[in-house]
Amino acid sequence: MTASNRRILVAGAAGGVGRAIALRAAADGATLLLLGRDASRLDALRAEVSEAGGTAHLAVADATSAKQTHDAVAKLEAKADGIDVLVNAVGINLKARRLAELDEAGWRTVLDSNLTSAFHLTQAVLPHFRAQGDGLLIHISSVSALVPDFSGVAYQASKAGLDALARATALETGGDGVRVTTISPGLINTPFMRHRPSAPSPQELAKALQPEDVADVCLAIIRLPARTNVSEIVMRPAVN
Q1: What DSSP letter does each residue of 75-126 carry, written as one string?
Q2: d(CA 191, CA 157)
Q3: pLDDT given at position 146
Q4: How far is CA 77 from CA 20, 52, 145, 186, in A?
Q5: Which residues are catalytic?
Q6: Domain residues for 189?
Q7: Total domain count for the chain?
Q8: Is there a domain that residue 2 lies in?
Q9: 16 is a domain residue
Q10: Exposure winner among 144, 147, 184, 204, fewest CB in 10 A?
Q11: Where are the beta strands (DSSP E) in the chain?
Q12: CATH, residue 121
């Protein structure tokens, strides 16, 4: 089974993981619905999808805004005549992340970007998923939601909240044919790493996951039949 003819909305499509997922899905025959804040990067991604023989529609929106999110999802749904899958790859972190340096503005920024945006996206797609009796919602979470690390209290709280949102959504909507998955990767070699207080070493990056690794897992879930539900997958770099 492939993702052929599936209409896949990728939120945060301009980021490293979102871009990799979009390109993998396009190569598998899916129609891509790209949502993000950076119009130029979305245009560049749409061109890459087209060069690969795929089709992509895009909408520029800030997912921390309920109105922008709902308007963008409605626009994309109309262009593709529906949505089958939502992949939420929206997320940020800050350099000033420890308790001693994190202020309220930083806390709210991370929570809004990583958790409130997921709430808006979920509410935007659920009416359509429920109406058609089918839908798959995949959140890109983090191992930081599961074990303490130095990614920062705001990031860890937001990802733990994202996992809880996913579980509650699955509980409330499972009877409507909606499936919900969280993918929780460890260190990934993407431009996101520039938000670290200090740059990762070449040795760390050499052992890190690649965005395409996460994309491959995401596509494996999308290819599964509707009778199959994967609630959570944890990915970590291999120890060697």
Answers
A1: HHHHHHT--SEEEE------SS-STTT--HHHHHHHHIIIIIHHHHHHHHHH
A2: 22
A3: 95
A4: 22, 22, 31, 32
A5: 155
A6: 7-235
A7: 1
A8: no
A9: yes
A10: 147
A11: 7-11, 31-36, 55-60, 85-88, 135-140, 178-185, 232-235
A12: 3.40.50.720
Provide CB contacts within 8 A for 180, sequence distance 6+.
136, 137, 138, 139, 166, 167, 169, 170, 173, 229, 231
What confidence tens digit (pLDDT) does each residue in 114-167 have? 999 999 999 999 999 999 999 999 999 999 999 999 999 999 999 999 999 999
Place of tokens 């395409």: 212
Task: Answer yes or no: is 215 within a domain.
Answer: yes
Using the Cα atoms of residue 86, residue 84, residue 188 and residue 19 in order, give the sign of their dihedral: negative
- Half-sphere exposure for 229 (CA within 13 Å, toward CB): 16
Q: Is the pTM of this model over 0.85?
A: yes
Q: Does residue 1 lie in a domain region?
A: no
